[in-house]
Structure formats: structure tokens, C-alpha cells
Design goal:
- Helix content is about 15%, strand content about 50%.
- It is mainly β.
- It has an 8-stranded antiparallel beta barrel with strand order 1-4-5-7-8-9-10-11.
- A hairpin with a 2-residue loop joins strand 8 and strand 9.
- The relative contact order is 0.18.
- About 10% of the residues have low confidence.
Amino acid sequence: MNTTLFRRAILGISCAVTTIAVIAEPVTYEIDPRHTFPSFEADHQGGISVWRGKIESSSGTIVIDQEAQTGTVNVTMDMDTINFGLDDMTNHAKAEDILDVAQFPTASYSGTLTNFTKDGEPTAVEGEFTLHGVTQPLDLQINRFRCHTAMGADICGADASTTFNRDDFGVTFGQANGFLMYVNLEIQVEAHRVEPDS
């Protein structure tokens, strides 16, 4: 290879690397509230039964750079939309002696995506959960994560889960009567790519 051809080859490789570096940047996805429903299960009456419910309104963003294997998650949940499927229980959960939704209308989660696979898919989140006005560390396991293009839109979706004790957040109703304090949290989420503000 003569000197001119060699220089052209090096220049071509440099341009390709530069192009990849430009493409490999964080992408922001806005959570779709129609397809995102954090659900939970908790003890009732100290092992008599397990009650399940969901939060029907959530918002937030996922920012991810799959090439660099970095990213963040921020989710806000409207606690006034909690639903057990039984009006009496739903209304009591919102009351002052349990979640006190009037004083603490939202719960939120923020964290960093971690443990990426070779395909650039995160398998965990390290973060903090705020509930009932109390913030505690809480990590999520990502059971499934995928980004693709569907119907002309770039979409990321995930299924994540974790377990925490509600008394760590000051939600102690029933504890003195033998209620178990664990809460299993399952989060299904879909998010659509949005362009950054210019």
C-alpha cells in the first residue's frame, strides 16, 4: 500500500470511529403512562391473605446509552391512583393512618442502570425510593429489558421487581396486630424516545 492510500485508510477509520462516538450518546425515553403500572402485593391480617393492587398513574424518564452501558431512571407515582380493587381497602390505604395521600401525594424512584449485558441491556438499578415522605436506598432487579422500533417509534420496555419493608418508610399500620411489613413491588414500564430540547 502506497503512502497516499495508507493515509486515506487511516482517515476513513478515524471518521468511522468519530461517527460511532457521535451516535453512542445518551437517549431519553419518556414513560408511557398507558403502559406503565407499578403493582404490589402485601400481607393482610398477618398471613391470612395477600392483597394485590397497582398505581394507575405514573410518569418519568429513562435515559440510556447502551454503547457506553450507562443510564438513569426517574419515576413518579401518583398515590391517589392506588387501587386494590376493593373501594373500602383502597380508600383506607389513602387515609392518614396508612399512606396519608393528602400529605404525601406522590412516591418516587430514581436510580442508575447497572450490570449491563454484552448486548447493552441493564439487569439492575441502584437507587432510592421515596414513600410517605421517607427516602431509603432500594435496588431493583430488571427481569427483562428491550429497546426496539415499533410502528415508527423507538420504544424501550422493562419488567423490574424488588421487595421492601413498609415500616422502613413509616407505614406501620397493623404492625402491632401481627401484619407482616413486606411489600413486593413489580414494575412494568414502556417508554418512548423523545428528542432533547434544542
